[in-house]
UniProtKB/TrEMBL annotation:
Coiled coil: none annotated. This is Globin. CDD domains: Mb-like (cd01040). The lineage of its organism: Bacteria, Pseudomonadati, Pseudomonadota, Gammaproteobacteria, Cellvibrionales. Signal peptide: none annotated. It comes from Sinobacterium norvegicum. It comes from the Bacteria.
Length: 141
């Protein structure tokens, strides 16, 4: 079942990248994120957003795919990520949830009316898995 969900999620990311280029999607994700969490602009201030957005977009996608492909052990990678982000003073799990939601909204918007109910379900499960990982990981900090 998880494998099927992972295939759907993977395919929709690839289709979104065919519709819009990855840089555009990455900037859209960050714009949506900053609209909801304007105070986080300060965290990104030392970095060139044009450069880091694409990396962030790819890494968030990888983390989501990891969560749905390996629900049994992907929490370990999430723990490492949360630990590493303490360096940037990112402590609030709400920010992680917000960035993930911005990622999914970006993919959904790129696909427009091609977005199917199967995709909706697969993404909801994937996000739930990632949220679980983040909640678990945050308890280890
Ligand atoms: C699931 C969510 C997230 C994942 C998977 C993730 C992943 C990563 C990774 C892998 C890097 C290192 C990039 C590199 O190799 O150079 C990074 C850097 C960084 N992250 Fe995140 N991150 C997430 C959420 C967040 C959030 C919520 C914030 C801030 C509110 C944040 C702020 C930063 C900053 C400031 C950097 C350094 C600049 C950069 O290299 O992009 N991250 N993140």
């Amino acid at each position: 079942m998880y494998q099927h969900q992972a295939e759907i999620v993977d395919a929709s990311i690839k289709r979104a990248k065919e519709r819009c280029n990855a840089n555009q999607l990455a900037l859209q994700m960050m714009t949506t994120f900053f609209q909801h969490f304007p105070e986080t602009a300060e965290i990104f201030a030392p970095f060139d957003l044009n450069k880091v957005s694409l990396i962030k977009f790819c890494k968030v996608g990888d983390a989501l795919l990891d969560a749905v492909k390996h629900p049994d052990y992907s929490v370990t990678a999430t723990e490492e990520e949360l630990y590493r982000h303490l360096t940037y003073n990112v402590r609030d799990t709400g920010y992680y949830f917000g960035l993930i939601d911005a990622y999914v909204a970006t993919i959904q918007t790129a696909l427009g009316n091609e977005w199917t109910s199967a995709e909706n379900e697969a993404w909801q499960d994937t996000v739930a898995g990632m949220r679980f990982n983040i909640n678990q990981a945050s308890q280890q900090l």
